[in-house]
Amino acid sequence: MKAAVIHEFGHFDVFKYEEVPTPDPRPGYVLVKILAAGINRFDHYIREGSVAPELPFPHILGADAAGEVAKLGADVAGFEVGQRVIPTPGFPTDEDEYEIRPAGTAPSFTLPGLGVPGTYAQYIEVPAHWLVADDTGLSPEEAATLPMVLATATRSVKTIGEVKAGDKVLVHSGSGGAGSMQIQVAKALGAEVASTARGDNGVRVARKAGADLVINTSNEDFVDRVQAWSGGGADVVIDNLGGDQLAKSIDAARALGVIVAFGFSAGTEATFNVQSFFFGQKKLRGSMASDIEDLKWGLEQVKAGRIKPLLDRTLPLHEAAQAHRLIANNQIKGNLVLLPWAA
Q1: Contact present, 70 and 122 (Cβ < 8 Å)
Q2: In whole angstroms, what is the distance from residue 183 CA to residue 157 CA?
Q3: Are residues 126 and 169 in the same domain?
Q4: How far apart (Å, rounded) are the C-alpha atoms in residues 250 and 299?
Q5: What confidence tens digit (pLDDT) does each residue in 41-73 have?
Q6: Cα(190)–Cα(208) distance, rounded to whole angstroms?
Q7: What number of other Cβ atoms are within 10 A of residue 21's Cβ?
Q8: For residue 89, what are the CA distances in angstroms to 119, 242, 246?
Q9: Spatial distance between the Cα atoms of 47 and 109, rounded to a whole number of angstroms
Q10: Residue 130, CA distances (Å) to 52, 64, 110, 125, 291 in order
């Protein structure tokens, strides 16, 4: 099979489009023909070497895919050849840990494209336990935008943020893949949503995702706007930024409000006023990874039409380097997908 392979960490040009062995599914596993592979910013960080410096090479990146069953390993039930499926974008590899929740706390938990070969290929071997039937009715290109961003958005907003109907929610970076999906999850739960974005195009994407208020941080401070909009502060803030923006996110939350730390694009270190934090009895929570239940709930919302994929563009698999360049330079509004079978 063809795959986009890296043999070392580095810049975009480390990708090599080459022939690699097609997996033969082991007992309990399924061979999935990848029809489309989604790209996440996390893939970019892995390729740079900032996530897993001991990563063995050669390596295939990619956690997201939409495909169809190509071959069943022994003892697999519940799937049939040709069936459309979506792999869970993170799971324990040790069968004895399959029922641990959150799954991300299991010692063997990993992501395709990190601890096991990923989706930047024409085929992938996946444990049947971590496959989900794809009955969304979406095209493979649209479905491939969903797994990680949908599951982690569901976890950060619904499970960790505990957003409910009537809540006022602030979601940062509403024009990005994560932020735009978190807006949709919050809306599906019945919340009112404010979002930050940069530039006119970013504002348009956040509005398209369903934000009730979009604040262009290129020329406006979000704290005052959110406090005025919400009548004293957001019930929940989803902070995809970290760094020096986390303190502002805390300020934008109401007393007793919840701040969910979900990313660090603005920096990995943050300083904030502890006194005002505990006087307001606010809650700071971290959200990472997801469970298969998060993915299934999200896909139910997609099937019901409450959540929609935001596909920016597709590229052939052999253009993985260009895809990563676009992601790293913030030139994608929504999601980007690789097509393993395109010329």
Answers
A1: no
A2: 9
A3: no
A4: 31
A5: 889 999 999 889 999 999 999 999 999 999 999
A6: 17
A7: 8
A8: 10, 23, 27
A9: 20
A10: 23, 13, 12, 11, 10
Q: Which is it for the CA torsion 182, 51, 323, 2, positive or negative? A: negative
pLDDT, tens digit, 9 for 90 and up, residues 149-178 = 999 999 999 999 999 999 999 999 998 888
> Would you say 254 and 277 are in contact if contact means Cβ atoms under 8 Å apart?
no
Task: Output the furthest CA–CA distance in the chain (Å, rounded).
Answer: 60
The count of C-alpha atoms lying within 13 angstroms of the C-alpha of 144, restricted to the half-sphere facing its C-beta, is: 29
Distance CA 293, CA 295 (A): 5
Residue 104 lies in a domain: yes
Residues 112, 74: one domain? yes
d(CA 211, CA 206): 6
Number of domains observed in the structure of the chain:
2
- Both 171 and 111 in a single domain? no
Instruction: Please give the residue range of the domain that contains residue 330.
Output: 2-146+309-339
Rounded distance between C-alpha atoms, residue 187 and residue 192, angstroms: 7
CATH number, domain containing residue 121:
3.90.180.10
Are 47 and 130 contacting, i.e. CB atoms less than 8 angstroms apart? Answer: no
Q: Which residues of the chain have pLDDT under 70?
A: none
Which tokens go with 59?
A: 């390596």
* Residue in this structure with the two tokens 């986390």, named with its chain if needed: 246
Q: Determine, yes or no, domain membership for 26.
A: yes
- Determine the Cα–Cα distance for residues 134 and 299; give it in Å rounded to an integer: 8
Cβ atoms < 10 Å from Cβ of 136: 20
Q: What is the pTM of this model?
A: 0.92
